[in-house]
Amino acid sequence: MKQTHYFTVNFTGFTTAASEEQSYLRLIAGEHAFYTDKRHFKDPSLFDRLRLGQPLHIGTCRLKDGSYWIHWLSDGHILLEPSRQPLSIKKLLRPVGLVFFVCLIILACAPWLDIFLLLCFITMLVNPFGIFSFCSCNFSLRLRVLNAKMQRTKQGDISFCQRLEILPATSERHPPSANNEIALPKEFALEEGVILNSYYQIWIATRVRPYFIKEGACFQLATRHSFFSARLTWLSNALNNRCRPPFLADGDWVIAARRHGYDDLQALYNVSDGSVY
Asked: For this UniProt entry, which segments traverse the membrane (predicted)?
């Protein structure tokens, strides 16, 4: 499938973002940026056993912004498998057969048909995301293809992986400078600098209706002429997980647009991985 890609990279270590449980990771190889979350794997402790300098084979899915999300990875000895995998056909036959049998019984009892349909409708209203998540995980062709490639990796077959080389560290690159000639409203300014002392935070707004949950990264931005606190926030919404959350880590070089006197950023370009938020 065009959406799935498989690579072999020389592992130089993950960068950790300011995130919940410090589980959000980034790996840059060549012109490619890869992201993943330890919480999505069966045994996250295996990440600590990956050896630097060794080839790392990864199964990924390409995201809308051109980056890649890692679903599984292996160094040839250790395999990190996703915690949620599509059900096999054999495992699906039993629940499907049970549902079919229950439907036959209900249809045979006509007076109970309306109640059954009402219960189904209420279930869809109460937990629509749970139903969507179950179907997308267990019936996704993309995940089945990724899982099939992972099984081949278990058998030592990595012929389908494309070899990539790691770029020099961020400090060795020459990031573009903020263009001071860009026309911005007077209340905004462009700031260019390095992220320091970043940490993750959640905000819950209960005084407004509808209430919302907002999460983000707070950090200090060190520029050539100043040193100030800033934060980048986004709404916490599980339905938007098709797009990865912003990735900000200590040492990242960024160009940001902010309103004078406020620490909330209006826009941010992360030079380290080419992301724009």
From this structure: 92-110, 116-141
